[in-house]
Amino acid sequence: MKFVGIRKVFSTINEEQYNTIGAFWDEMSKQYGRDKLMGLGCNWTAESIEYVIALKNGIIDGANYEIDLPDSWTVVSGKTDNLSQIYDEIYKDGALLYEIEEFDDEGNCRIRYCR
């Protein structure tokens, strides 16, 4: 799977990434619609995460990052309001190589991940 999108690096200090990535999603959703986007988390360090937003279909304007991703993923779906609990369950088995998030305006989320 080829993932092509707009990459930004966010601080993970004091869990800042939740607010800053959320603002990134809001900004991109205004332009494209939340349900047409997906976000890739990768290359975590103790202080940062790389996050890339892409279109589910097509290439997003201003794309500045491209990566080939694995074909095999574990998929979890739920409510965005329960995202913290979903990630607690995902991370109980250890760190991830990649995660792909999808959200809609009805409060649903779909998380794909691989280790």
- How much helix, percentage-wise, in residues? 10-25%
**Molecular shape:** globular
Adjacency order of strands in the biggest sheet: 4-1-3-2-6-7-5
Distance between the termini: 16 Å
Number of helices: 2
- Cα gyration radius (Å): 13 Å
Runs in which pLDDT lies below 50 for 5 or more consecutive residues are: none
Per DSSP E runs of 2 or more residues, the count of β-strands stands at: 7
Explain what this protein looks like in three dimensions.
This protein has 115 residues and is α+β, with helices and mostly antiparallel strands. Helix content is 22%, strand content 41%. It has 2 helices and 7 strands, in the order βαββββαββ. The longest helix is centred in the N-terminal third of the chain and has 16 residues. The chain is globular and about 35 Å long. The chain starts with a strand and ends with a strand. The mean pLDDT is 95.
In a nutshell, what does this entry contain?
This protein is of the alpha+beta class. It is 22% helix and 41% strand. The two termini are 16 Å apart.
Note the topology.
Elements: E1 2-11, H1 17-32, E2 37-42, E3 48-55, E4 65-68, E5 74-79, H2 83-91, E6 98-103, E7 108-114
Could you list some keywords that capture this structure?
115 residues; 7-stranded antiparallel sheet; 2 helices; single chain; alpha+beta
